[in-house]
Amino acid sequence: MQRYFIELSYNGTSYHGWQVQPNAVTVQECLDKALSTYFRQPIITLGCGRTDAGVHATQFYAHFDIVQDNETNEVKPLNFERSVTGINSLLPYQISVKRIFEVENTAHARFGATERAYHYHIHFHKDPFKLDRSWLYKGDLDVAAMNEAAEILLEHTDFSCFSKSNTQTFTNNCKITEAHFQIKDESLLFTIRADRFLRNMVRAIVGTLVRIGKNEINLEQFKEIIESKDRSNAGQSVPACGLYLVSVIYPFVK
User: Fold this and answer.
1) Between the N and C ends of the chain, which has fewer C-beta atoms within 10 Å?
2) Three-state SS letters, the chain
């Protein structure tokens, strides 16, 4: 068999997250069906991570294998441009394949990634064009204080306090290399970059930083929340609609 990486983007509003689930439509389910139809064999993808219901991705990778031809005992070469066009014609409009490329059979979409980045969008005035694509927050926020708190994240590695409970992870350690808010066109954009992320981590971080912005907690209390390693001490998770996976880096992908 031959392994391929597929790069895609999607609007997650209509989907119950990335991963296949019983009795719910997911991005992976739609992609697997399209790939299986196009390549005329059962195909199951493995994604670079999970996104929750309503979360979007401007860059997402998955890998899949194509089984060799039973008659020739060889894997037929792909016309990559034609494959992208054909697969996109089978996918809903909210999901778009950008490219497909051949990789080593040991390449792994999830464990091979060395860095990921997310954006979280917040807007402050009703805007029909941001519905389900950004979080409408009604109130004032101290962005400077929120950025001071975001810098503190770079000083820690254990983010148990921001992780969904009962997840199957061996460690809650992550190395965050970038975290900051930026005011753009009367909206607020949060960028965070790390080697890995925990389940629900970004939305919980933003929810806690918003508490800083509302002057409900101070910087010292923010540090104490991180050091407590207790999810119940952190802020509520902000709505999924504002979250976007925007970058996934592999050492073998250009």
Assistant:
1) C
2) CEEEEEEEEECHHHCCCCCCECCECCHHHHHHHHHHHHHCCCCCCEECCCCCCCCEEEEEEEEEEECCCCCCCCCCCCCHHHHHHHHHHHCCCCEEEEEEEEECCCCCCCCCCCEEEEEEEEECCCCHHHCCCCEECCCCCCHHHHHHHHHHHCCCCECHHHCCCCCCCCCCECCEEEEEEEEECCEEEEEEEECCCCCCHHHHHHHHHHHHHCCCCCHHHHHHHHHHCCHHHCCCCCCHHHEEEEEEECCCCC
Q: What is the pTM of this model?
A: 0.94
| pLDDT single digits (tens) 60-95 | 999 999 987 656 666 667 889 999 999 999 999 999
Q: All domains of the chain, ordered by start, with CATH?
A: 2-103 (3.30.70.580), 117-249 (3.30.70.660)
- Name the region of 215 (left: φ>0; alpha: ψ -120 to 50; beta: rest): left
Active-site residue flag, 142:
no
Amino acid residing at 187: S
pLDDT digits 0-9 by tens, 153-174: 999 999 999 998 766 667 899 9
Check if the beta carbon of residue 160 is closer than 8 Å to that of residue 230. Answer: yes
| 8 Å CB contact between 167 and 198 | yes
> Residue 215 burial (CB < 10 Å; 0-12/13-18/19+)?
exposed
- Choose, from 32, 52, 142, 230, the residue flagged as catalytic: 52
